[in-house]
Amino acid sequence: MKIDLSGKRALVCGSTAGIGKAVALQLAEAGASVTLLARNEEKLKSVLAELTANDGQQHGYLVADFSKPEALKIVVENHMKSAKAYHILLNNTGGPAGGKAIDAELNEFEAAFRSHLMCNHILVQALVEGMKAEKYGRIINIISTSVKIPLNGLGVSNTIRGAVASWSKTLANELGQFGITVNNVLPGATETERLSSIITNKSAKMGMSEAEVSAHMKAEVPAGRFAQPWEVAAAATFLASPLAGYINGINVPVDGGRTGSL
Q1: Is the pLDDT of residue 198 over 90?
Q2: Is the pLDDT of residue 202 over 90?
Q3: For residue 4, is it within any domain?
Q4: 207 and 170 housed in the same domain
Q5: Which residue range is the domain that position 66 belongs to?
Q6: Does 102 share its domain with 47?
Q7: Nearest to 109 by CA among 99, 121, 124
Q8: What are the backbone angles phi and psi of residue 99, rounded to the nearest 5°?
Q9: Max Cα separation, the chain?
Q10: How much of the chain exceeds pLDDT 90, in percent?
Q11: Is the Cβ–Cβ distance between 185 and 140 less than 8 Å?
């Protein structure tokens, strides 16, 4: 079983590091033409240079900040005036800061809602007509296992991720008839800059060394280790392929078995 994305075009968000970058690399390896989207142009150029183009793909990038949905909308809509249709959209952006839900300020919920759900929606609306015309669409959202079981200390994230998951399922129901699938990938603890930040913060709050915090977190995972970004990207790449055409409206945990429910 080989994943072949030759002739497919993908827009990958948050693609300068971590899971987003890993997805971009894998989609390009599978033959897709990839457009990177993130806020740091220098990092975008660096990742662009790493993308495989053995099948003659045409890769590119867009600069936009997910904290500014209105600006993102302008960038993407202007791009689509001259761009070919996209077949694959990977929605992915950094998670909200940690903390208890009861302590969160209203502006924290609002900011997370804007950068996650609103930006995702802007991108889907910009790309969906092209997907319909191509009779092929794969919308994949990188969210969190918290949509199954809320994670302690991530109150704002738990709340907003749940909203994105429900939005995704609703779109799956609405768009399935057009050959468009909408699915969510739920990463567990994955070796990214965000995980390093979480470990550092926990270390300071708990009075433990970072090594101790890391060991404690790994002990909660049946696999006994953290995920590598490419392992999460593999699930997204499969969902982006023709092989996953009848998989629609689901949450796929990639967490080494940590989540305590099916």
Answers
A1: no
A2: no
A3: no
A4: no
A5: 9-189+228-254
A6: yes
A7: 99
A8: 135, 160
A9: 56
A10: 91
A11: yes
Tens of pLDDT, residue by residue over 36-78, are 999 999 999 999 999 999 989 999 999 999 999 999 999 999 9
Do 245 and 130 sit in the same domain of this protein? yes
- 207, part of any domain: yes
The answer to whether the CB of 9 falls within 8 A of the CB of 33 is: yes
Q: Residue 126 corresponds to which amino acid?
A: A
**Mean pLDDT score, 129-147:** 97
Distances (CA, A) of 60 to 2, 37, 48, 51, 98: 25, 9, 7, 10, 33
Tokens coding 114: 């804007």
Rounded to whole angstroms, the Cα distance separating 122 from 190 reads 27
Residue with tokens 């319909």: 132
Neighbour tally for 30: CB within 10 Å:
21
* pTM score above 0.90: yes
Give the tokens for residue 169: 């399922």
What Cα–Cα distance (Å) separates residue 260 from each residue in 16, 95, 113, 218? 31, 22, 26, 15
Domain count, the chain: 2
